[in-house]
Specification:
Arc Repressor Mutant, subunit A, single chain, 20 helices, mainly alpha, ABC transporter involved in vitamin B12 uptake, BtuC, 2% strand, 488 residues
């Protein structure tokens, strides 16, 4: 066990040894309404209910994050939602067993009800033509309806309105007591140990269950073991977030972690961390105001983490994808401008001369203003210099080499398509326009070898070679390299 886990469980034992106090409907009912005072009081941890709610919320965040990761990669998000609603009848039956909120009785009843719901779903899908999502919807609605009826019956009993059993619908973190916390710690420890010991089995069956069965792994048994752990996680989360929101704690932290990494081990750590953070933030925010519930704030905190991952994840974030696409579009535009300058110089077979904005605009079929903006962009990236009040464009050595490379890629690809794929020469231009910007050096060298270092493209135009690319640019500031395009 790593030091971080030992510290967490040492804290758990320390908190369990602290004296208990009366639990409030909201954590914030333990103090006044001044935000600064409430925040300071929260971080002093002087209220036992705050300590229990905070540690309990963090424990269920860890459990939900770990198990939710496997639910997300297995594409079983609706299973978590159905299971969270299916346990409600078991919660009511557990209360009716001895007419008290005995955590163990409620835990056993809810777990049995959740597993029964899972079995019914599997039975429906195996014996009928109904799909799994339909069976999940049926179980979700039916079990939840039975649970609501039982809760209504309990509320009509003489002491039912004081039982607090109705708080399982929307959660009540402030009512977490020492017995609840012990149960949460046991379930969290069990989940961590099982995942560590059977990590390879869970991983294989999550990504390729068919191969797992062919390799002799008990895929069905592993699936039901995961469902059992998931039922445990749902039951311990009910006390804090309730039946309605527990599925969000299972899915949201794991979904955020899924956007940030492509490795399952890192996803598990991130999901557990995000779940723990959501639990802590939910407990803190609910303490700041007199009517702030813990469960919804936990879900909102997890959703905020997901929103940040959705926007700014390195590979899958919307903002980063937009920035990469924008940068790629700007790069392609610069390369097309350089290619057009090369074509202008090639057409007049001139040396040491610049290209005017009007020539560039005519070549690209754009206005002079648009050509001026593109020339300025080349100048910013040190690919060209501007002279005579910006009306003439001279390529720098780097700009000339890049222009030659783009033209070479284009003409090599056209020649390859006409020779290897037997495509007519007048049908290869559009494809070469796209591929010229993504060909790597290794692919270009392979094309040159396959084409036996050809120097003429299908249209009879010269293919720029290595020697021509090394000549430099046509900037008058560098007279020794001022050659532009020369005859081959």
């Amino acid at each position: 066990m790593k030091p971080s886990w030992r510290i967490q469980f040492a804290l758990c034992a320390l908190i369990l040894a602290m004296p208990s106090a009366a639990n409030a409907a909201k954590i914030s009912e333990l103090g006044d309404t001044n935000l600064v005072t409430q925040a300071i009081r929260f971080f002093t941890f002087q209220d036992p209910a705050v300590r229990y709610a905070l540690l309990g919320s963090m424990l269920l965040g860890i459990t939900c994050g770990l198990l939710g990761s496997f639910i997300v990669v297995r594409k079983m998000a609706l299973v978590g939602d159905a299971l969270s609603h299916a346990v409600l009848p078991g919660v009511a039956i557990g209360f009716l067993w001895n007419m008290s909120k005995d955590p163990v009785a409620i835990f056993v009843g809810a777990t049995v009800a959740g597993l029964l719901g899972t079995v019914v779903v599997r039975l429906i899908t195996q014996t009928t033509h109904l799909k799994e999502d339909t069976a999940l919807g049926l179980v979700l609605a039916s079990f939840f309806a039975v649970g609501i009826c039982l809760l209504t019956m309990i509320q009509r009993m003489p002491t039912g309105n004081k039982s607090g059993i109705d708080k399982f619908l929307f959660g009540q973190a402030a009512s977490i007591g020492p017995a609840d916390l012990k149960l949460m710690a046991v379930v969290t420890l069990l989940s961590v140990v099982v995942i560590i010991v059977f990590y390879k089995e869970f991983l294989l069956t999550s990504f390729d269950s068919g191969f797992a069965r062919a390799a002799g792994f008990p895929a069905q048994l592993i699936h039901y073991a995961l469902m059992l752990l998931l039922a445990f996680a749902v039951v311990i989360a009910l006390q804090a977030v309730g039946v309605v929101l527990v599925s969000a704690m299972l899915i949201t932290p794991a979904a955020a972690a899924y956007l940030l990494t492509d490795r399952m081990s890192r996803m598990l750590w991130l999901a557990a961390l995000f779940g723990m953070m959501a639990g802590a933030l939910g407990a803190f925010c609910s303490f700041l105001g007199p009517n702030f519930p813990t469960g919804p704030f936990m879900v909102l905190s997890a959703s905020a983490v997901f929103a940040l991952a959705f926007l700014f994840a390195p590979r899958h974030g919307v903002a980063n994808r937009w920035w990469r696409q924008r940068s790629r579009a700007q790069r392609v535009q610069r390369e097309n401008t350089l290619k057009s300058i090369y074509h202008v110089l090639e057409a007049r077979e001139s040396k040491g001369e610049g290209v005017s904005l009007r020539e560039l605009a005519e070549r690209r079929r754009e206005t002079v203003e648009e050509a001026a903006r593109q020339a300025a962009d080349l100048h910013r990236h040190e690919l060209a210099t501007l002279h005579e009040e910006g009306n003439l464009i001279f390529l720098t050595p780097a700009g000339w080499q890049l222009a030659c490379a783009i033209v070479r890629n284009h003409r090599l690809w056209e020649l390859y398509l006409t020779n290897a794929a037997q495509i007519a020469a007048d049908h290869v231009h559009e494809d070469a326009e796209k591929i010229e910007h993504v060909l790597g050096d290794e692919v270009v060298r392979e094309l040159e070898r396959r084409l036996q270092y050809a120097t003429i493209d299908p249209h009879g135009r010269p293919i720029p070679g290595f020697a021509e690319m090394q000549r430099g640019g046509n900037s008058p500031d560098q007279p020794g390299e001022s050659i532009g395009y020369g005859k081959r």
